Amino acid sequence: MCVVHLVYARQYAVHQDLHLGSGQSFYSSNIAAGCTISLRAQRSAFSSGTIFKEPPSDDPYPQDTSNMKGTIAVEEAIIDQAGVEAHTFAQFQSLMRPGSDETSGLSAHEKRLLDIHDERLKKMDEHGVEYMLLSLTSPGVQGEADAEKGKKMAQVANDYLAGEVKKNPKRFGALAALSMHNAKDAAEELRRAIKELGMFGGLVNDFQSKGAEAYEKVYFDTPEYESFWQTVQELDVPIYFHPRYAIPQDLAAGTKYGDRRHLLGAGVQFHLDLSWHLYAICSSGIFDRFPKVQIVAGHLGEG
Fold it and tell me: Is the domain covering 4-52+68-301 a CATH 3.40.50.2300 domain?
């Protein structure tokens, strides 16, 4: 049986040796959900699912951030310098902002994702975020259909992430990007990221694109990925499941999203698509064969 809880904080708290206030508990279920964790909060705050966000400057009800000291932000995207072209948001421009120039990309958003030690750190201080776990933005390596290119992309991104974390390890940690074209490459890179780069786990963006036209979707509940999950259990680190935007084949006329583009993204499509993958993992027997495997589902469990 799979039990879903709202937070997963134990792994990060243990590694960072952060003080935990009284009345807190950590769950040992296989799947947990949540984006932001406050290590000073009582149990009720853990179960509330509150995500702290910056209020607008003219907000008549400004949020009090004085009690947020000790917050760990878990799902925090970056773009690595070497992968700017591959990770550009231009490919999603028409989906995220219909009618806009597809060639321009979301330059302001990309700039924020490229920044780590300047404005991002200032915002962390402003809103009481004590520690942040960085990860490669979606779709990341899962959007690379070529296995060898994907393997290299993951290595480059993880080396970059580790280098940035070393500049300020008291404030930043990282989750590893993984090429999921095959279990061997995924397991080897996860092991390298944990043992050599000091990362806290891995992050995958739903399914792995594959094939000459990137039309094939690879999910990770099949027997081919047994050795990967065995490695995850051996390393005792979580794997974060993050959504991704619909791919071209799912946007053709006559498809469910092609005719209903207003449902794309965080409103509906993210949690519908990723929850299917999570259900597949739950029903595959992976947690029976590897009971110590931990999966984190963002956005309060993707529905």
Answer: no
